[in-house]
């Protein structure tokens, strides 16, 4: 399967909402405990001002048709000028597309975007038992720099440890 990567637009808000809410409902990858509305996702998308941005990953079929199968974001790490150049990463893959290389393609593309946008460090904050995301952190050379026990609850009511990762870009 071929994948494509591009910056998200207003037309993508429903797909962003659907993919994110599937992760929220399943639990294990978001500290949101209830699904988000389309309007909340639209506001989130609009809050990403350059050099930060939201992107979609699309599967491209043999006829050139495209289906959004994931999204990712470069977000403000900490809102103080001294942290400029450090970005918080996020990525979510549609349930039916997990385990098919979409996460690897998406994270590679996201890191390329971070470098193009002049970022010097990328940080990922991940539930410590999220094996798929932890594997991606290792694959791309991230270093774990912290673990916060019992830090966040997900939609299932499970209290989860948070792991903190960084990569020098």
From TrEMBL:
InterPro entries xrefs = Acyl_CoA_acyltransferase, GNAT_dom
Question: Could you confirm whether the keyword Acyltransferase appears in this record?
Answer: yes
Q: Is Acyltransferase tagged as a keyword?
A: yes
The highest taxon in the source lineage is Bacteria
Q: Name one GO molecular function term.
A: acyltransferase activity, transferring groups other than amino-acyl groups
**Pfam families for this protein:** Acetyltransf_1
Record keywords, A-Z:
Acyltransferase, Transferase
Report domain N-acetyltransferase positions: 3-169
Q: What is this protein called?
A: GNAT family acetyltransferase
Q: Which organism is it from?
A: Bifidobacterium erythrocebi
